[in-house]
């Protein structure tokens, strides 16, 4: 947890003493609801460990623990030029990553293309055709039409997918606003490759990559102590390197038990049976009214998509309570709109530096047309702190569970996502929770120099995808073909990389 040193969030508890009794009692109730003790964190983490192990044993477990067929960490000496494609919900990003001869260094050029909204509900042919057109445009712009050698591509496909091969992926379900018929339950690679072939685009898909696995691999490229990759953003997830002998559901493949295997946990689904997470009535409402009730329980309590909604539901509830009645006599119609507040709204409240919370007052007036009293502002600030702190503390349980499962007492964790990068105090609150869970010495748990330390990640969807493509070709060169659908085609791709680089 980098750059924060020993700093901890400044408490405003002293400013709560002058609140009216009606608000003071509500704050006490909210503190009981949203505060997660160290003992509870340990209980959650222990259940998390058992669920990780279950996912490695059984198909269709709550936490899927998907094998990715990325089977080694980079050593920093990888070289070559590789393409990376990141298909997000808003943009399509194409990168050309050159892994240089300088250990752990790279050069990158990239272009972004808008993802038209109509494509998200169109046809599969339209989607893959558009993606292929963008790749063709990128190659022609940077290399001209004379480019003939097939460039290897790492495709960051950040949608839940199962993989029997690294260059293959069966979409389990669309997310991020996509709803294209005839794609779920099928391998996304053949129609994508058909669109490339139809246009004569010289690309060989070498690896289909999840962004969390890419984050881990990209971070490990520059840091040999890196063991886990995490995303704390709109959603949450983690990846780590397991050994094949600890993955019973792959036993039928007779893999060398000592071979490494990157596992994409997809652990936002943790505790969807509601056994251990301390859900509040507001969490239950969010789950029941979501498109997929009783799924992604962990994610719904800590991810950026939901923090603002939890906050909104609490405020609306307090407004409607006769004994509390905040925002009395005001038009709260804007507050009644579901998902109208995001995690950035809470972050702005927590970042308000003024004792009188004037920035929060302006935020409510400008965003919600609500004029807040001083006591209401104090309640609002405390509520934001409670929700943000709970998210950070619960998020530590997933990281701690992987460490406990693997027996790691020290490691580095590469973390990415808007909540990790932008939400105030998230890193230091998470560090304190890790200290409580893992029983660190008293002087730890402040961020920098902790036994398990989180660092801002390298570009997982760009550099990570390119690195995984490089590692895949490296495996083929030495005859390690586990999880590769067409080794001969991969060998040709490896030759193409060498031919391309010999011209540079």
From TrEMBL:
GO biological process, one term: mannose metabolic process
GO cellular component: cytosol; mitochondrion
PROSITE patterns on file: HEXOKINASE_1, HEXOKINASE_2
UniProtKB keywords: ATP-binding, Glycolysis, Kinase, Nucleotide-binding, Transferase
Domain (Hexokinase N-terminal): residue spans on this chain: 27-221
EC annotation from Swiss-Prot or TrEMBL: 2.7.1.-
Stretches assigned to the Hexokinase C-terminal domain: 227-471
UniProt GO MF annotations: ATP binding; D-glucose binding; fructokinase activity; glucokinase activity; mannokinase activity
Keyword Nucleotide-binding: yes
Catalyzed reactions: D-fructose + ATP = D-fructose 6-phosphate + ADP + H(+); a D-hexose + ATP = a D-hexose 6-phosphate + ADP + H(+)
Pfam families attached to this UniProt entry: Hexokinase_1, Hexokinase_2
Segments for region (Disordered): 1-21
PANTHER family reported in the protein's UniProt record: HEXOKINASE, HEXOKINASE TYPE 1-RELATED
Membership in a protein family: Belongs to the hexokinase family.
Protein name (record): Phosphotransferase
Record organism: Periconia macrospinosa
Lineage of the species this protein comes from: Eukaryota, Fungi, Dikarya, Ascomycota, Pezizomycotina
